[in-house]
Please model this.
Amino acid sequence: MKKKLSPTLTLFYTSNFPKKFNTSSLKKYSVTIGIGGNIGDTKRIFDKLILCLKKDARYTLLMTSPLLENPPFGFLEQSDFLNGIIHLKTNLCPNDFLKAMQRYEKKFGRKRSFQDAPRTLDIDVIFFDNKKINTENLIIPHKNWANRESVIIPLKRMKNERKTKKSNGWYEWRN
Model:
């Protein structure tokens, strides 16, 4: 199913986006990642990422957002992007988590040719358990997340879904 938000923004609803996976986890850190891509069958790549994360004992998937199709920014001579949000829990520290996500990007064919280049899969750490980190390799919360429709709209839709389901016993989300 899809829902047109504007001439340039469309929400997509699939079997994994949005979805509630678990209501709780004993893992230590609550993490919100943004995913995006515009090369290949992006919806299929996202579904395969979900499957990989579900099978990986280092993570407990909690919830996903609907997917947002939106125009690129920065380098504009490329196809529209599909973006979504995944909320999960992990015991990995932030740097180890980042390295693991970069391995997933590479597994799904990510090539880093230039900034804002087209890509098969981009994974950004948006929030990591209310931590603030500013190093050469990692900035949390993600730089400019609050100014990107590709993050704000899926995140807002996911939070709205959580609020409507909270009364039905869904978990509390701190971010």
Q: What stands out?
A: The mean pLDDT is 90. The beta strands are 2-4, 10-12, 19-20, 29-37, 59-64, 67-70, 81-90, 122-128, 133-134, 139-140.
